[in-house]
Amino acid sequence: MAYVPQTAWIQNGTIEENILFGRGMQRERYREAIRVCSLDKDLEMMEFGDQTEIGERGINLSGGQKQRIQLARAVYQDADVYLLDDVFSAVDAHTGYDIFRDCVRGALRDKTVLLVTHQLDFLRNAHAIYVMRDGAVAQSGRYHDLLRTGTDFAALVAAHESSMELVESAAPGPSPSPAGNLPLSRQPSSAPKERESASSNGDIKTAKASSRLIKAEERASGHVSFTVYRQYMTEAWGWWGLMLVLAVSVAWQGSTMAADYWLAYQTSGDAFRPALFIKVYAIIAAVSVVIVTVRSLLVATIGLDTANIFFRQVLSTILHAPMSFFDTTPSGRILTRASSDQTNVDLLLPFFVWMSVSMYITVIGVVIMTCQVAWPSVVLVVPLLMLNLWFRKYYISTSRELTRLESITKAPVIHHFSETVQGVMVIRCFQKQDNFFHENLSRLNASLKMDFHNNAANEWLGLRLELIGSLVLCVTALLMVTLPSNIVLPEYVGLSLSYGLSLNSVMFWAIWLSCNIENKMVSVERIKQFTNIPSEAEWRIKETAPSANWPHKGDIDIIDLKFRYRHNTPLVLKGITLSILGGEKIGVVGRTGSGKSTLIQALFRIVEPSEGKIIIDGIDICTLGLHDLRSRFGIIPQEPVLFEGTIRSNIDPLQLYSDDEIWQALERCQLKDAVTSKPEKLDASVVDNGENWSVGQRQLLCLGRVMLKHSRILFMDEATASVDSQTDAVIQKIIREEFSACTIISIAHRIPTVMDCDRVLVIDAGLAKEFDSPANLIERPSLFGALVQEYATRSSDI
């Protein structure tokens, strides 16, 4: 069984790897899958062809390209049963026709195909049709039999034919076009053969290396720099905070030593006064308790403040990062820094720093006390210190790099796990559970291998430090017993041995904790790497802030706009110039991957233009703060975005509107009945990504969100691609009424959707080929006229 979901699931990897999906390469079948899914021209336009790396969730592909790649994956598997869930919603009309003809009726002609679709054009060729209503099969039968019943299916077909009449009445008669005048049409190319030749000569490895989108994770080497230590120690309270902690730690050690010294002094004399001894000892103990409490509070407060600052810095950096960062950075890398690295900063580093400072101060105190009461022990203490420091230096070089490697190998585990969870339905349908299990096991082993070696290194260090300390303690005890009493006073022998015994464990913990601090400082190092990534432009610029009612007209002037996603990638928009008057309704059409959605991204400054200007109501948008710009627009995206929460929190995230206004918006966007049917009404649950609502309902909810906002400029990117023709017609009517005074730029694959626009923009290969009213474009030989004619002809021929 093969399954193609409505929301495309694409893995991070090359296009070839996504299509093969774990199967071996069979060149003829592979080439056929690419052809029947209309991917050949897309691959020709890509510099590295099918070796182009796809970013996480297909972030660097258009919606249509993602849909066709996952369809090609299903075709290549050569299954017996195919489940296709609305696979034509993200592709343009003529591409959809080609796929239906070459793939569904061609390559899959001998297979069982269950097609879920809103595209009624294709249903005439179905052997059986099932009409769904309220989760049940309302009707079933063949196309003409269902039409004669005159119920639900007939109503859907009537709505579709009504929209088609508008297209057919406007469609021009067939007329010859000069060669090359219709770049939107598909033409054969020799590029695939050239790629085959290259791959047969072994050049495919070079292509893979050159087309890498996800680069190797940055990793520092050598000692953790003093700057990292300084940033952690002084981020919250500055140098004064550090000095305060040191002072309190010294005071605590002084109080501890004073108690021990007082005990030794009182018990050695003949005139022992128990009352005085207990009183002074109690005072020293009380002072020690107060000091250690103050120290604990200081360390906890400073550590918590520092962790909060670091987390806010990382969060702010990620929220302000440009889209190119997310194109090339897997989510696993972000999550490891926000989870495991941040956990080290939150919990472990404050404890290790506090304990390490205490241990080193204790070591100094013990050495001073021991040398004072038994100076010959210096002969042994100095070698002990030197050996411990040598072993620390030898150990930390390995442990630090293992810690860095462990941090890096966690990201692929998290990324693969997240990717697997998102595509679990596809994985199960293709019966690839074992493949993903073994891949996950391999990544886990790679990560745990570093952890194992790190723990082994810890044991190696601990064993040697304990052996050295025990040896020195034995020699010290022997010296204390054998040396004459005039060299070491008898009353101080017990104190000296007590401190010598503690020096062994204290020295071990001091060295071990200092090593752990350096290892955990790798987390600070990695977090600081993220805080230094480039950010988007300023969110707010006071000097150029627009007026409260901007844009008040909605005029848009685009002047020689050139746009690329990253500095090392080809231009996607190649010099577009056009003017849109306020209140105009502009339809944008073109082949999938031609640059339609990119135009909207440029208007939102998702990526800064490479060249050219965009002027809205007389203001160059590149001079505005990003929040001032984006907050003034409304958008219904191609892939609707919902956040975990409720209907209320998704349609009114800033809580600016009353319940009555929200219900009115839901009614206008055809969602009131669906929400009313839920027991919680507006508080109905929305899970992550809105998975408990259909894609069509998610798009309608985004429409309702825009209706509440009343933006002067509205962008619609395939806003009704996942709804039926009847609902589409209703929504288009609502948009015309609700946004009659607004400037609307609507990207659509359905030709009827753009027929009532004031003007239509035809984009092909990043160029504005045509920009005029639908009537004018249809009257003369044009790309749009050819699209309309092709849409009408093919719809009637299917």
Strand content: 5-15%
CATH class of the domain at 226-321 and 323-531: Mainly Alpha
User: How far apart lie the N and C ends?
Assistant: 26 Å
* CATH homologous superfamily classification of the domain at 226-321 and 323-531: ABC transporter type 1, transmembrane domain
Largest sheet: 6 strands, mixed
**Main β-sheet, spatial strand arrangement:** 13-16-17-10-18-19
Low-confidence stretches: 175-202
Secondary-structure content class: alpha/beta
Protein name: MRP-like ABC transporter
Pfam families: ABC_membrane, ABC_tran
Domain ABC transmembrane type-1: 244-519
Family: Belongs to the ABC transporter superfamily. ABCC family. Conjugate transporter (TC 3.A.1.208) subfamily.
Report what the structure shows.
The relative contact order is 0.10. It contains 28 helices and 19 strands. Helix 11 (238-268) packs parallel to helix 14 (331-373), helix 12 packs parallel to helix 18 and helix 15 (378-422) packs antiparallel against helix 17 (433-482). The strands form 6 sheets. The chain has a 6-stranded mixed β-sheet. Strands 9-8-11-12 form a 4-stranded antiparallel β-sheet, covered by helices on one side. A 3-stranded parallel β-sheet has the order 1-4-5. Strand 4 (81-85), helix 5 (93-107) and strand 5 (112-116) form a beta-alpha-beta unit. Among the domains are: 2-208, Rossmann fold (3-Layer(aba) Sandwich); 226-321 and 323-531, ABC transporter transmembrane region fold. With 798 residues, the protein is of the alpha/beta class. Residues 244-519 form the ABC transmembrane type-1 domain. Its main location: membrane. It is a multi-pass membrane protein.
